[in-house]
């Protein structure tokens, strides 16, 4: 629960704006409790958020069923996670909100996990090696970019359209 609440703070404020006061308020835990669970403070908490973000969504792509069913389950989860495009993209907020220099490797790992999972699905659907990887990278870029554009335009239809078109982009 602490990591989930912390994720919302990092998503809304970026790394620099995610103060210990905000994290404490969002998690309902005092600073001493946060330091008990995350001895490195905000930095350790951010790392835990990255690990969860990368694993959570990649694992949903590795579930049961064929590639189309697994992608459909993932898209449903991502739509809920981002409240149909109404919430800030966590990875984007951390890249742009002061976290990139400190968490370059963690951010790259999260993007790689998503890309690897999409490429695995594309290959399972019959798309050849390099083409599967290219489509996977494009899918991640399009998905993350659509969240930024959706927030900037205040137009959730951009995100929902991207989700609807992603299966054809990945598998066609």
Brief descriptors of the model:
single chain, 172 residues, mainly alpha, 8 helices, globular
The secondary-structure class comes to mainly alpha
What would the principal axes of the Cα set say about the shape? globular
Helix count equals 8
- What composes the largest sheet? none
Q: pLDDT below 50 for ≥5 consecutive residues: which ranges?
A: none
Helix content: over 70%
Whole-angstrom Rg: 17 Å
Mean pLDDT: 89
How big a fraction of the residues is strand? under 5%
* Tally of DSSP β-strands: 0
Quick overview:
By secondary structure, this protein is mainly alpha-helical.
What's the layout of helices and strands?
Layout (H helix, E strand, L loop, with lengths): L1 H16 L2 H8 L3 H7 L4 H20 L5 H15 L8 H35 L4 H25 L3 H15 L1
Helix pairs in contact: 1-2, 1-4, 1-6, 4-5, 4-6, 5-6, 5-8, 6-7, 7-8
Descriptive overview:
- With 172 residues, the protein is an all-alpha fold.
- Helix content is 82%, strand content 0%.
- The protein is built from 8 helices and no strands.
- Helix 1 runs antiparallel to helix 2, helix 1 packs across helix 4 and helix 7 packs antiparallel against helix 8.
- The longest helix has 35 residues.
- The chain is globular and about 50 Å long.
- The model has no long low-confidence stretch (mean pLDDT 89).
């Amino acid at each position: 629960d602490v990591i989930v609440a912390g994720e919302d703070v990092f998503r809304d404020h970026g790394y620099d704006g995610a103060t210990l006061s905000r994290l404490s308020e969002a998690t309902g835990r005092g600073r001493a409790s946060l330091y008990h669970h995350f001895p490195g403070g905000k930095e350790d908490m951010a790392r835990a958020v990255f690990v969860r973000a990368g694993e959570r969504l990649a694992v949903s792509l590795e579930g049961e069923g064929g590639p189309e069913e697994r992608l459909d389950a993932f898209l449903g989860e991502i739509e809920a996670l981002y409240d149909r495009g109404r919430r800030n993209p966590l990875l984007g907020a951390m890249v742009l909100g002061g976290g990139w220099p400190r968490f370059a490797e963690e951010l790259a790992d999260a993007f790689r996990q998503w890309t690897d999972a999409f490429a695995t699905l594309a290959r399972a659907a019959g798309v050849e090696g390099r083409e599967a990887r290219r489509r996977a990278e494009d899918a991640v870029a399009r998905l993350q970019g659509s969240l930024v554009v959706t927030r900037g335009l205040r137009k959730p239809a951009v995100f929902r359209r991207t989700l609807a078109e992603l299966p054809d982009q990945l598998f066609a």
